[in-house]
């Protein structure tokens, strides 16, 4: 079933991930079947992705996240909103974030 | 969507320090941690580029013979070596393929213990039975490399039988 992502929704990082800044790289390792697999299932977020991740606190909706980022990144509000939706969709599919 | 999220690490590998940090974060959540090891100090049981899975402590039993991950206080280096002795609540750890034991490690510096080893596409059964005491004896006396050489000349069928029944 496809999950509908909406700018009015709020999300937060899943309890089932290990997320850390490692020497400037933002690393996420999902915990699947009780194992954090740093060999096959390790992900990194770029600067923009990390900025989104850090704003996903379960209190702020995605519109609010995009609004904050628009003051930091040079892009139109629409582009930023699309990128936020795109990344959160990807994170949701990989069970790295959950809906608040 | 642009590549805001990338699978794998492009252009860098995790340092020992970073591995420890991620491992500890996983253990705090009660999860096991799987990663690729480098080096030959635990050969023949763990070889360079094997992938091991570690479970958080406490481990069942005394710990003697178990292969554990710990950080050496002297140099902050991550080691995956075997417990070959105990003294005053500390563990003596040693690489099976290293002549000298590392040092006595406080119990709290043990991060986790190895539960499985993968080599190529095969998962190697990692014995946790009483035979580990034999392995401790061989390791302590630096006999494991010799044992490993002898192992190679044992005919295949007998080796298979021994693997199932005795050691690995």
Question: Which outline of chain B best applies?
Answer: globular
Proportion in helices of chain A: 25-40%
The level-1 CATH class of chain A: Mainly Alpha
Q: What portion of residues of chain B is helical?
A: 25-40%
Low-confidence stretches of chain A: none
Q: Average pLDDT value of chain B?
A: 83
Report the sheet-strand fraction of chain B: 25-35%
> How many domains in all of chain B?
1
Question: What value does the Rg of chain A take, in angstroms?
Answer: 13 Å
Mind explaining what this structure looks like?
The complex is a heterodimer of chains A (100) and B (168). Chain A has 100 residues and is α+β, with helices and mostly antiparallel strands. Chain A contains 3 helices and 6 strands; from the N terminus they run E-E-E-E-E-H-H-H-E. In chain A, a hairpin with a 2-residue loop joins strand 3 and strand 4. In chain A, helix 2 crosses helix 3. The relative contact order of chain A is 0.24. The mean pLDDT of chain A is 92. Chain B is an alpha+beta fold and 168 residues long. Chain B has one domain (16-165): Ribbon (Umud Fragment, subunit A). The longest helix of chain B has 13 residues, at 16-28. Chain B is globular. The A-B interface holds A 15-16, 18, 20, 22-23, 25, 27-29, 31, 34-46, 48-49, 52, 83, 86-87, 89-91, 94 and B 1-10, 12, 14-15, 18-19, 21-23, 25-26, 29-36, 51, 53.
């Amino acid at each position: 079933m496809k999950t509908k992502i909406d700018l009015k929704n709020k999300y937060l990082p899943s309890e089932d991930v290990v997320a850390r800044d490692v020497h400037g790289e933002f690393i996420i390792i999902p915990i699947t079947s009780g194992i954090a697999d740093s060999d096959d299932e390790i992900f990194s977020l770029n600067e923009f992705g990390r900025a989104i991740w850090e704003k996903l606190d379960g209190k702020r909706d995605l519109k609010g996240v995009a609004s904050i980022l628009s003051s930091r990144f040079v892009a139109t509000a629409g582009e930023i909103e699309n990128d936020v939706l795109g990344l959160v969709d990807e994170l949701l599919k990989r069970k790295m974030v959950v809906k608040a | 969507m642009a590549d805001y999220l990338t699978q794998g690490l492009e252009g860098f590998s995790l340092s020992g320090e970073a591995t420890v940090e991620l491992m500890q974060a996983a253990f705090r959540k009660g999860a096991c941690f799987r990663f690729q090891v480098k080096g030959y100090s635990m050969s023949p049981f763990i070889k360079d580029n094997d992938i091991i899975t570690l479970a958080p402590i406490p481990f069942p039993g005394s710990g003697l013979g178990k292969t554990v991950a710990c950080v050496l206080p002297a140099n902050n280096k991550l080691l995956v070596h075997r417990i070959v002795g105990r003294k005053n609540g500390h563990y003596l750890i040693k690489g099976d393929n290293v002549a000298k034991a590392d040092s006595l490690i406080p119990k709290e510096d043990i991060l986790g213990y190895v539960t499985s080893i993968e080599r190529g596409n095969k998962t190697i059964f990692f014995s946790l039975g009483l035979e580990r005491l034999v392995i401790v004896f061989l390791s302590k006396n630096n006999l494991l490399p010799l044992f490993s050489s002898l192992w190679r000349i044992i005919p295949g069928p007998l080796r298979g039988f021994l693997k199932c029944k005795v050691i690995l």
